[in-house]
Amino acid sequence: MRWEYSRWRVVLPSFAAGLVYATSFCCLSPARAQAAEQEFYELWIYHIENADKQALVHDYLQNALLPAFSRLSVDRIGILTRLDDATDFSIFMLISFSKVDDFVSMPDKLAGDGEYQKAAAEYFAQPLKDPAFERIDSRFMKAFAGMPVIWHSNLTATRTLGERLGRLLGRVLPSCRSTKRKSE
User: Fold this and answer.
1) What is the pLDDT of residues 87-145, one digit of tens each?
2) What's the pLDDT score for residue 157?
3) Residues 180, 2 contacting (CB under 8 angstroms)
4) Range scoring the smallest mean pLDDT among 28-32, 60-64, 91-95, 151-155
5) For the residues 153-170, what does the mean pLDDT come to?
6) Structural domains in the chain?
């Protein structure tokens, strides 16, 4: 029996986690880490089935939700889409909160914001049988103690994350190549 074994499946997640952990110490000095309070993050993943619905969700985010967050002083938000898979129309949104109370009170504040309700009317009017998204995954996280505040990168997306990690790992771990193994 022949099977193909790839060390990348084992090494890549471990290396990525170690890289994030290690860079958290070199990107932030201990004095600055102690001075800053840890932030909280909510990651929303909109699972969307086609480009038309992705455009609808994108318009909702750009014209309704982001201005509402701005009015509520939540200004550190990142919105991403996948560039490496043309069939995945998901939208990823990372929202940073300085306090848990800001996170907890956000739905009530949005419900009471008339400008938001008016700008989001088309999005909210989608019929239940044909929603704008398949589902939304939400994850609430707390920043690492060694890196309590997320920093903003000035880099632009010229390559996908997979390409960047692949190039980095190719230089750091050249021996981790896909190997074939025979099993009798």
Assistant:
1) 999 999 999 998 889 999 999 999 999 999 999 999 999 998 999 999 999 999 888 88
2) 53
3) yes
4) 28-32
5) 54
6) 1-37+159-184 (no CATH), 39-142 (3.30.70.100)
